[in-house]
């Protein structure tokens, strides 16, 4: 049984006979997309973990792309009816959109087991544990026999619009050069499955021999990494023409570590 943002009003905190619960089927997976409190946030979705595995994409409360201004949302690419519904209940309706995208992307929507979204964002729950990470949505049941404890809370990030899945990488850059400069470092990944755009790894004072780490949620699964593009810029004309390079760049894939 897959719960697509099960309802909060009149259901949250009620006995399990009344609402969706892990006892309702051999395997119950839940996608929480609108679990902020109903008052004052108008959250339509239930917030506690109630399935065998519970996915909280983007933290489970506020979905990226749902903060668009009302006019652009109502005059949506998918038509006025779809746009109007999104304006009223955008976060709530994201659950079925993620689910339908998950059918097309069997390797997408990896959920990382974590105690909270804040810990996930800071990189504490990366990479996947040895048994791997379940895929949110249609293929969640592939994980059915790997569940060890009572409740499994899983976190991930998604895109703002279709296509929604993102793939998480940890990128670590050690700089080389003669002197420190101010600026930013960008990295793009190239691989057998496609290339990513540039992602900012760090910004501010760049010191040679220092190591900088960032987690990127890429819009493509790059597959086997074949090349990494490194760019840095100091955004100003510097008469000393400082040079910076990358001594090493390490890319860690969340999925297979």
From TrEMBL:
InterPro entries xrefs: AB_hydrolase_fold, Lipase, PLAT/LH2_dom, PLAT/LH2_dom_sf, TAG_lipase
Pathway where it operates: Glycolipid metabolism; Glycerolipid metabolism; triacylglycerol degradation
The keyword Disulfide bond belongs to this UniProt entry's keyword annotation: yes
Enzyme Commission number, as recorded: 3.1.1.26
Alphabetically ordered keywords of this record: Cell projection, Cytoplasmic vesicle, Disulfide bond, Hydrolase, Lipid degradation, Lipid metabolism, Secreted
TM helices/strands, residue ranges: none
Domain PLAT per the UniProt entry, residue ranges: 167-257
Main location: other
UniProt-recorded Gene Ontology molecular function terms: galactolipase activity; lipoprotein lipase activity
Location of the protein in the cell: Cell projection, Neuron projection; Secreted; Zymogen granule membrane
Catalytic activity as recorded in UniProt: 1-(9Z-octadecenoyl)-glycerol + H2O = glycerol + (9Z)-octadecenoate + H(+); a 1,2-diacyl-3-O-[alpha-D-galactosyl-(1->6)-beta-D-galactosyl]-sn-glycerol + H2O = acyl-3-O-[alpha-D-galactosyl-(1->6)-beta-D-galactosyl]-sn-glycerol + a fatty acid + H(+); 1,2-didodecanoyl-3-O-[alpha-D-galactosyl-(1->6)-beta-D-galactosyl]-sn-glycerol + H2O = dodecanoyl-3-O-[alpha-D-galactosyl-(1->6)-beta-D-galactosyl]-sn-glycerol + dodecanoate + H(+); 1,2-dioctanoyl-3-O-[alpha-D-galactosyl-(1->6)-beta-D-galactosyl]-sn-glycerol + H2O = octanoyl-3-O-[alpha-D-galactosyl-(1->6)-beta-D-galactosyl]-sn-glycerol + octanoate + H(+)
Protein's name in the database: Pancreatic lipase-related protein 2
Native organism: Lanius ludovicianus
